[in-house]
Design a protein that fits this description.
By secondary structure, the protein is mainly α. Helices cover 75% and strands 0% of the residues. It has one domain. Keywords: Membrane, Transmembrane, Transmembrane helix.
């Protein structure tokens, strides 16, 4: 597999990750202003949580290849932001969504006392602390990475500004509402991912088109 193919596949993963995460966010269960109460988790949500988990896995698969393309131009700030955002998704979103997809309904129906009151799904102090710290790292990483994208030569600035807006909106103390909360957390960062993915795919086509044709041997 050559570098162009790897970058193209990474871009495709990023493009797919955005809509899947948005679908998961829009269908996230919410009951009486709570997204992770026993009452909320008792609602049907497996498909939506699975979509969000799949989108997050695709994000983690695609982001390294996309970053490899822009990394030399994104500088140290881009590297710090990329690492924070990648690790934030790996340590915060993945374990949270695995529990949401495969365990939360059973907990809500049969062990409601084990459901966390701190949006961590399961009431385990160490896990709740880990979710808080890694969640902060995720949003901070998104913000730093997006700022670096605005400063990266050869990228449309709207990609970075979309990520910056996504990080700021994610921190806004908005009420927890069906659909609205999903848009708050997933729409803008998903748009940034899709934009980066499309640009990465297009860059391979431009690079291939610019390559000199092999000389004909008489």
């Amino acid at each position: 597999m050559n570098a162009f193919t790897l970058r193209r596949l990474s871009g495709m993963a990023a493009v797919a990750a955005g809509p899947l995460c948005l679908i998961g966010g829009l269908t996230h269960p919410i009951e009486d202003g709570h997204a992770h109460s026993p009452e909320a988790l008792a609602q049907p949500h497996t498909l939506g949580s699975a979509a969000l988990l799949t989108g997050t896995v695709l994000l983690l698969l695609g982001l390294p290849g996309v970053y490899g393309w822009i990394g030399p131009r994104a500088g140290r700030l881009g590297l710090v932001g990329y690492l924070l955002y990648f690790l934030g998704n790996l340590l915060s979103a993945v374990p949270h969504l695995v529990l949401m997809t495969f365990a939360s309904s059973d907990l809500a129906h049969h062990h409601p006392g084990m459901v966390s009151t701190k949006d961590a799904v399961i009431a385990a102090p160490a896990f709740e602390a880990e979710q808080l710290v890694s969640g902060i790292g995720l949003v901070a990483g998104l913000l730093v990475f997006a700022i670096a994208l605005v400063r990266t030569a050869g990228l449309p600035r709207w990609v970075g500004w979309t990520g910056i807006a996504g990080a700021v909106v994610a921190l806004a103390p908005l009420p927890v509402l069906p659909v609205v909360t999903g848009l708050q957390f997933e729409l803008l960062r998903g748009a940034m991912l899709v934009g980066l993915g499309v640009l990465a795919i297009r860059s391979t086509r431009v690079a291939v088109a610019a390559m000199p044709s092999p000389a004909l041997v008489a």
